[in-house]
């Protein structure tokens, strides 16, 4: 027994408690992964929406592209790009978070400067202090038995060459340099971050892993909710835009009246999107206040508000473009009085909505601040 193992000698009750704790953590981690798999499946379904709404999107773009191209058409094009870009970016962040959830850096070599991506669940080995000397020696002989090694390194030259190419990509993995199958197996164990550890080291490792899983999963869940809300807001805007252009001749542009309706869609979409993206954080803050928290710093957390920090400026650009297109349309002498009144009314209501959003702190995540926000 090593000096470290002697210092960490556990009583039978302590060893049983450590084993039970590891088992509990494994169950909790499996729950984390079931949640992540559910979010991954849901995110995949969200990607189907652009396919379903393909004709609607192409119809809007076609109406803007045909005919004489005007400044109003250009502004409406910016609006459409903003409407489509926000949910696309939200989904991009969601898939990026899911990828980072499932893969972590596995440092290799003595200097630990080279690393390989490994799956979030590492391969397991029996803790080195769970067996006595004779049983541990017998286990080591079994691990090196050819029939066991073949499970990881098939006994054919094609498989050996494939494994060698994989291991050669990481210069810090030197276990396979002797060229035999056992060396290749040791190299694959190293790539999978499978190392023999005492039981207490396994407990410490799983404690840190639980924290990592919990922190990353909370961001993923929040970004998933925001992505769903952004997609829903965009879907409504796209379908409304399709209703505007569906009756137009394919060789004719929007026209001034339809430009008013399209600009109105953008003016309504922007405040709704701001409300949708900022509401999840507010729901969390309200829940914390209901639990008695006098203040909260959720809105200052860069991980929990990254979607807003990028999407809200895009929504603001879409709103400005919509407002510009609306002003150009209502200034056209060919526009009817009724359409002009409707356009100006929508612009006024949308302006008030944006002002209310700013005054109530909907854009506060854009301002870098380390001070917690007091509860209302």
UniProtKB/TrEMBL annotation:
Q: Which UniProt keywords apply?
A: Membrane, Transmembrane, Transmembrane helix
Please verify whether the record's keywords include Membrane: yes
Q: Which residues cross the membrane?
A: 35-54, 74-95, 220-239, 259-279, 310-331, 337-361
Protein name, per record: Uncharacterized protein
State the species of origin.
Ilumatobacter coccineus (strain NBRC 103263 / KCTC 29153 / YM16-304)
């Amino acid at each position: 027994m090593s000096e470290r193992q002697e210092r960490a000698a556990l009583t039978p009750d302590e060893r049983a408690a450590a084993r039970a704790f590891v088992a509990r953590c494994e169950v909790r981690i499996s729950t984390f992964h079931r949640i992540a798999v559910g979010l991954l499946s849901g995110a995949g379904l969200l990607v189907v929406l652009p396919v379903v709404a393909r004709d609607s999107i192409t119809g809007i773009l076609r109406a803007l592209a045909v005919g004489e191209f005007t400044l109003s058409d250009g502004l409406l094009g910016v609006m459409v790009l903003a409407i489509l870009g926000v949910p696309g970016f939200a989904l991009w962040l969601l898939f990026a978070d899911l990828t980072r959830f499932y893969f972590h850096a596995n440092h290799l070599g003595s200097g630990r400067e080279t690393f390989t991506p490994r799956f979030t669940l590492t391969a397991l080995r029996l803790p080195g202090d769970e067996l006595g000397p004779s049983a541990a020696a017998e286990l080591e002989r079994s691990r090196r038995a050819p029939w066991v090694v073949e499970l990881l390194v098939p006994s054919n030259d094609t498989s050996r060459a494939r494994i060698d190419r994989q291991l050669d990509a990481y210069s810090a993995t030197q276990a396979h340099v002797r060229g035999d199958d056992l060396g290749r197996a040791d190299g694959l164990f190293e790539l999978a971050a499978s190392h023999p550890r005492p039981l207490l080291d396994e407990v410490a490792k799983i404690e840190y892993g639980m924290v990592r899983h919990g922190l990353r999963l909370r961001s993923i869940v929040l970004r998933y909710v925001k992505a769903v809300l952004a997609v829903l807001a965009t879907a409504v805007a796209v379908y409304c835009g399709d209703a505007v252009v569906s009756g137009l001749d394919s060789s004719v542009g929007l026209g001034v009246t339809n430009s008013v309706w399209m600009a109105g869609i953008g003016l309504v979409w922007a405040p709704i999107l701001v409300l949708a993206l900022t509401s999840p954080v507010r729901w969390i803050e309200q829940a914390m206040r209901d639990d008695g928290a006098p203040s909260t710093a959720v809105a200052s957390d860069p991980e929990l508000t990254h979607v807003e920090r990028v999407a809200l400026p895009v929504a603001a650009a879409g709103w400005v473009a919509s407002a510009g297109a609306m002003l150009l349309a209502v200034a056209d002498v060919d526009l009817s009085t009724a359409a002009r009144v409707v356009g100006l009314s929508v612009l006024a209501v949308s302006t008030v909505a944006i002002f209310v959003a700013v005054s109530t702190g909907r854009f506060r995540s854009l301002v870098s601040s380390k001070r917690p926000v007091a509860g209302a």
